[in-house]
Write a structure and sequence with these properties.
This protein has 429 residues and is of the alpha+beta class. The protein has helices at 22-39, 52-59, 61-84, 137-151, 203-207, 255-260, 266-300, 308-328, 333-339, 344-371, 378-389, 395-401, 404-427; strands spanning 3-9, 13-20, 88-99, 105-113, 117-119, 153-156, 168-177, 180-193, 215-221, 235-249, 302-303.
């Protein structure tokens, strides 16, 4: 029977030193010898038929021990975790300190422990204020404007036609600050709709009256709240060449326009838009409530130290999610990073606080699903899996959806949803 010593380490990690006596090692050695025999050509023997002594003579006993080591470590390590009810995260760091033929095997495993909530906030005493989701006339007008813009036809203006304040223009733009070109401030084909607001006040007014081929230089002050700290509140020089002027043929917002979109008339179109906008607003408000209440509980709760391994894994997961999002938009991730002027190292530092919050939220939801006895039925899991499978036609993908591992993930997700809904019902006022 193997023995072990538990030694707590800083930052919620644990060192487990395990000793496996020689008599317990023997069965693993015999199995390993058979495997080595199957994979090694031994003169006079068919694969897998040479005995232990023959294999030892052919390849050396240490080779057999090395082949037996992985299953020995896995079996005894898992058994120790189960016996002591130790919850870990990530993969252990293994260090073999004694591996000598005929002797006991000694190894250590350094693990990151699953952090615990030392004090869960009294969430039933906390509250989140609900905000209105009323659909206004302004909301409807903006939606109709967007629909009209989607149906708008662009007609290239004749050469020499000056740009009007309702046109679309394409310009070549070069930005400079104190005479030095701004990084990322060069755009050879920048489209500007002159009837719409522009992020730099006064910019579009400078373009009105220009003709194709005209060049112009002017200086404007960027808004104080601009995303670029280098440009926010700064005077920036614009070198502009107007390349194209397009007249915009907007359809009238009348019953014929509504009919082109499959609706009986403008009244019916406004009604369907109102329902859609209301649904979107309700979804957005529900998401905002959930984010606010979970952050509030996290801030009021207290936790064990988070192992570096756990935080790093969550940060890497967030970066992977960002990379997948970029790929789905057809962007190379390295190019995307350049476009937002970030590095992987910078992102990791930036994501760390959010990663810690995500870990806290996961622990909170886990605690609440247990304390509130939240359960998911097999029927609920099956229904969710069926809905996911409906979106996939390939047999391989559908089989993956119904495998036990993915099923467990879906069950976990459904439990969390129920936990969040429990919190929302109790906290939103």
């Amino acid at each position: 029977m193997h023995t072990f010593i538990l030694e707590p380490q800083p930052k919620n990690t644990l060192k487990i030193t395990i000793t496996v006596p020689h008599e317990d090692v023997v069965p693993y050695l015999e199995t390993a010898a058979n495997k080595v025999s199957e994979e090694t050509a031994i003169p006079g023997f068919r694969p897998g038929k040479a005995g232990y002594e023959t294999v030892k003579t052919a390849v050396g006993e240490m080779k057999i021990y090395e082949a037996a080591l992985e299953p020995i470590i896995r079996k005894t390590f898992v058994a120790t975790l189960e016996a002591e009810k130790i919850e870990t995260v990530g993969s252990p760091k293994i260090d073999v300190s004694k591996l000598v033929p005929g002797n006991e095997i000694v190894f250590s495993a350094e693990v990151a422990l699953m952090p615990k909530i030392t004090k869960l906030a009294d969430w039933k005493a906390l509250s989140v204020e609900a905000k209105t989701t009323e659909v206004t006339e302004k909301d409807l007008d903006l939606a109709l404007k967007d629909l009209r813009n989607m149906q708008t036809k662009e007609v290239r203006a004749e050469a020499g036609t000056p740009a009007c304040d309702v046109d679309k223009v394409v310009v070549s733009m070069n930005l400079k600050k104190e005479g030095v070109p701004v990084e990322g401030g060069q755009s050879p084909n920048h489209a500007v709709y002159l009837a719409e607001e522009y992020y730099v006040p006064g910019f579009k007014e400078q373009l009105v009256g220009m003709k194709e081929g005209d060049e112009k230089s002017f200086t404007l002050t960027f808004p104080d709240n601009h995303t670029s700290k280098m440009l926010a509140g700064s005077a920036v020089e614009f070198d502009i060449t107007l390349k194209e002027v397009h007249k915009l043929d907007h359809p009238d917002l009348d019953d014929a326009f509504a009919a082109s979109l499959g609706q009986a008339d403008m009244k019916a179109l406004r009604e369907i838009l109102g329902k859609n906008i209301a649904g979107e607003k309700e979804m957005e408000e529900k998401g905002r409530q959930e984010r606010e209440l979970l952050e509030k509980i996290a801030n009021e709760s207290r936790f064990d130290d988070f192992p570096d391994l756990l935080v790093n894994e969550e940060v890497n997961k967030m970066i992977h999610e960002l990379e997948q999002g970029a790929k789905e938009q057809g962007m190379d991730f390295d190019e995307y990073l350049k476009s937002i002027k970030k590095t992987i190292v910078g992102l990791k530092l930036e994501f760390t606080p959010q990663a810690i919050l995500r870990i806290k939220v996961a622990l909170i939801l886990r605690d609440i699903t247990n304390s509130e006895n939240i359960e998911i039925t097999d029927a609920e899991v099956e229904e969710a899996l069926d809905k996911i499978a409906e979106r996939h036609e390939a047999k391989e993908e559908r089989d993956r959806i119904y495998n036990p591992e993915y099923r467990g993930y879906v069950e976990y997700t459904l439990k969390n949803r129920k936990a969040v809904e429990t919190l929302r019902k109790a906290m939103v006022k």
